[in-house]
Write a sequence for this structure.
């Protein structure tokens, strides 16, 4: 019983603090508005729903399995969890509510605590009854969560159903036809062509805004695949990755645009030049940092990235690079006399992505790719095996940078402008998040990561303000729960879980 | 043991990497010498009073960097990881101090004289601001370690670093969403007015040493000495040094390694919180991004002094503050590019001498 109560109190404290935090950053109001649209409820009901969902989650966490897993214990955990979180949130509401009643303008210091948000928090009632309602909802939801956790989550029915499901999967896998289809490379090609056809067809059906978003996703796929080579394959954490993106973007902007220099070369000539310059920058940047270890490397590359951004935006270089205003009026390219519009540009991006996927896939399984992976695993051993690690590191920097250069070139041409704000550290972090969330070292993973991190925020535009904080939280959570990413490469998964599987084998052998 | 008959040092041919390094170094030195020569001898724009002004402001900011830098150094010494979120821990401390000053400033003690608490009891107010700021940062540091770093103790370094980067942006964004993105003026008690202070007459012109500057510098030095004493003289300090040398052996000697790590984050948080409040008091404004640049600068300082080395971090920080404030004028470049100098020092230091200026002493101590 003591263990149950302890779990409950801990979950209650955590969820209480989290709910108060969500109120403080204004997330509750945003989420409530979203639920209101989505569920067609009124404001108070949707707030109650949101709160109840959090409470249920809290109850499930509170009633986690213990040694003597009784119904009574689970209920006690749920009750204590709900009580503690309810009391925490209630006290917070009392304080905030009384301040608002006293006429204090909380928004002056805590920008998210608008009168609207505070009234929502106390259900449009006086502060006291409102806080009590909060307490009641949280306790009830937490109890429901505990019952769900004990009854559904750990019920007797789970094992037979799970076994049957495994048996079904097994037997389907054994059917000769299914097996052949799953194993044969032809089915892979078919799947690839189907996806490609879908992607090519999609832009014709989309609105202009979504064409734009899809373009952004494609650019992030390019960047992600480039960083994937540096971080995922070669294991070098590069936080200044955006610098190469900037090199590509500025090359196209300065050489095809009418403004600061009026060079106005052909776009198709400039793109390879931008890619080459980015690759060169990658190698040049790589040379001095070759000997550095993982985390020093990250900081040095971060320093390089910031230097390039500050220089690009400085007054000293304004005549050359356009300064803080950047370069505007970059023309859209034309294709054999056909002027590419906004809608057509997406096909150019898709072509770029295909090229990069092809190059990455070929590289990955080549001598070079294997050398990178060996280096990532153990540099000393790789060197002992006769791999010239310096050359391969430079190669990784150069190729990764060239992908970013391509991304930057296409980015500048599509947006028709570029300025230092497009090249902040945040871009590097976003790309890193794409690679991490998708799965380091895995091409489908990176593509999925770009869709998840760049596509979903466009669908949930209401949460725009919370994009970065969610990315940041995702980085931490992914590192703790699933460091190999959503769609990891096989090798990576085996690597990270090597110890766990070895242990399992040992215990199963012993048992 | 006699002298070996053949000298052990055999001259190895230089690798192309070393050649590249040397060339790069010579080019860099030539550039710096040329700029210094042009600015100091040929142009001769600034008189001694200007240089003194730059040097003083550099030393003051450097002393704040020192408080943050020792946080990096302590954590690096023990966990061999860069606590990327350390600058943001400092930012939280700065905000806590800001709220204390605002709250005390709004509390009218004597309505007749319109006297608020902040000016009625300025010393108490400052102590309160520091206490709240330091405890907030301490709490932030410990929580950070519990949530983002402890579960990853056995994970590869890359994984921990990525988690730290995520934590850093998480703290920054939470501050932005909670407190807003505008820059906020820091409300000092009248005892510590901004832009006023002692005046020195140099070269017939006044050089102002602000009271906030004196306060910041003196308090930083006191805190640095206290920290050094803690690490060198107390039981906890001994445990910290033991853990930094070898975690397993330390555990065998009966040291609670997790506890020591947690306390290290506690201490580094406390000192970062003090730095945050000082930053607010001295510079007069804070925003949610205030921790980022000082964080990186302080890390640079820690590297400059040899990471893992506490006196090194302090010396490196003062040096960095000086270079940064004298640099743009001495090299005759745009003052906008001040941060480029800081980053360049970081990059150059890591390339040419990753063990830092005082790094050697540390390695000897550790053998």
């Amino acid at each position: 019983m003591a263990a149950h109560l302890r779990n409950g109190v801990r979950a209650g404290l955590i969820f209480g603090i989290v709910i108060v935090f969500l109120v403080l950053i204004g997330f509750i109001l945003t989420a409530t508005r979203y639920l209101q649209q989505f569920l067609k409820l009124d404001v108070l009901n949707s707030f109650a729903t949101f709160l109840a969902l959090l409470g249920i989650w809290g109850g499930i966490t509170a009633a986690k399995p213990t040694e003597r897993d009784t119904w009574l214990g689970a209920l006690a955990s749920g009750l204590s969890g709900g009580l503690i979180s309810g009391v925490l949130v209630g006290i917070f509401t009392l304080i905030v509510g009384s301040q608002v009643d006293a006429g204090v303008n909380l928004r002056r210091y805590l920008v998210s605590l608008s009168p609207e948000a505070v009234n929502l928090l106390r259900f449009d009632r006086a502060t006291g009854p409102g806080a009590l309602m909060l307490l009641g909802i949280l306790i009830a939801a937490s109890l429901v969560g505990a019952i769900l956790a004990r009854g559904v989550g750990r019920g007797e029915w789970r094992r037979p159903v799970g076994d049957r499901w495994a048996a079904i999967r097994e037997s389907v896998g054994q059917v000769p036809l299914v097996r052949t289809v799953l194993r044969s490379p032809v089915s892979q090609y078919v799947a690839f062509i189907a996806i490609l056809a879908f992607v090519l067809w999609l832009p014709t059906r989309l609105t202009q805004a979504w064409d734009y978003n899809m373009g952004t996703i494609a650019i992030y796929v390019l960047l992600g695949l480039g960083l994937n080579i540096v971080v995922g394959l070669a294991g070098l954490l590069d936080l200044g990755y955006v610098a190469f993106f900037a090199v590509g973007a500025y090359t196209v902007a300065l050489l095809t645009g009418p403004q600061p220099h009026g060079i106005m070369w052909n776009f198709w000539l400039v793109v390879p030049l931008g890619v080459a310059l980015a690759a060169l920058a990658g190698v040049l940047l790589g040379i001095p940092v070759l000997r550095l270890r993982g985390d020093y490397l990250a900081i040095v590359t971060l320093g390089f990235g910031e230097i390039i951004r500050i220089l690009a935006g400085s007054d000293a270089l304004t005549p050359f690079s356009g300064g803080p205003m950047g370069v505007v009026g970059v023309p859209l390219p034309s294709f054999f006399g056909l002027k590419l519009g906004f809608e057509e540009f997406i096909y150019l991006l898709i072509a770029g992505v295909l090229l990069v996927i092809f190059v990455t896939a070929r590289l990955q399984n080549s001598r070079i790719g294997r050398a990178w992976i060996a280096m990532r695993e153990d540099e000393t051993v790789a060197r002992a095996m006769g791999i010239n690690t310096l050359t391969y590191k430079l190669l990784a920097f150069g190729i990764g940078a060239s992908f970013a250069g391509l991304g930057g070139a296409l980015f500048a041409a599509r947006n028709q402008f570029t300025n230092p704000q497009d090249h902040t550290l945040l871009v590097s972090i976003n790309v890193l998040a794409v690679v991490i969330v998708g799965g380091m070292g895995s091409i489908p993973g990176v593509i999925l990561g770009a869709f998840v991190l760049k596509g979903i925020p466009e669908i949930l535009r209401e949460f725009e303000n919370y994009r970065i904080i969610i990315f940041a939280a995702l980085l931490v959570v992914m590192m703790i729960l699933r460091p190999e990413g959503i769609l990891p490469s096989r090798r990576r998964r085996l690597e990270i879980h090597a110890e766990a599987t070895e242990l399992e084998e040992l215990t199963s052998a012993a048992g | 043991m006699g002298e070996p008959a053949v000298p052990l040092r055999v001259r190895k041919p230089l690798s192309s990497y070393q050649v590249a390094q040397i060339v790069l170094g010579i080019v860099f030195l030539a550039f710096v010498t040329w700029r210094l020569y042009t600015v100091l001898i040929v142009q001769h724009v600034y008189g001694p009073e200007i240089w003194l002004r730059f040097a003083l402001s550099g030393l003051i900011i450097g002393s704040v960097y020192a408080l943050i830098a020792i946080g990096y150094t302590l954590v690096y010494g023990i966990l061999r990881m860069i606590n990327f979120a350390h600058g943001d821990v400092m930012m939280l401390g700065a905000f806590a101090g800001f709220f204390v000053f605002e709250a005390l400033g709004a509390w009218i003690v004597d309505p007749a004289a319109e006297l608020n608490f902040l000016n009625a009891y300025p010393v108490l107010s400052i102590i309160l601001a520091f206490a709240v700021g330091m405890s907030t940062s301490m709490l932030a540091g410990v929580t950070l370690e519990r949530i983002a770093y402890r579960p990853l103790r056995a994970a590869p370094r890359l994984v921990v670093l990525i988690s730290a980067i995520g934590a850093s942006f998480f703290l920054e964004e939470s501050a932005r969403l909670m407190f807003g993105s505008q820059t906020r003026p820091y409300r000092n008690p009248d005892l510590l007015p901004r832009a006023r202070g002692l005046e020195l007459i140099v070269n017939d012109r006044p050089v102002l040493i602000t009271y906030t500057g004196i306060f910041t510098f003196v308090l930083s030095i006191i805190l640095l000495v206290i920290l050094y004493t803690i690490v060198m003289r107390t039981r906890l300090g001994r445990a910290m040094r033991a853990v930094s040398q070898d975690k397993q052996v330390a555990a065998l000697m009966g040291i609670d390694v997790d506890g020591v790590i947690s306390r290290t984050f506690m201490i580094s948080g406390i000192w970062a919180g003090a730095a945050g409040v000082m930053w607010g008091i001295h510079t007069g404004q804070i925003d949610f991004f205030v921790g980022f640049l000082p964080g990186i600068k302080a890390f640079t300082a820690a590297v400059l002094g040899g990471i893992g080395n506490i006196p090194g971090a302090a010396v490196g920080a003062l040096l960095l503050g000086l270079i940064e404030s004298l640099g743009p004028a001495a090299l005759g470049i745009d003052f906008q590019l001040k941060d480029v100098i800081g980053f360049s020092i970081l990059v150059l230091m890591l390339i040419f001498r990753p063990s830092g200026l005082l790094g050697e002493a540390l390695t000897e101590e550790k053998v």
Summary: Residues 71-101 of chain A form the longest helix (31 residues). The longest strand of chain A covers residues 327-328. Chain A touches chain B through 52 residues (CB under 8 Å). Strands of chain A lie at 327-328, 334-335, 338-339, 417-418.
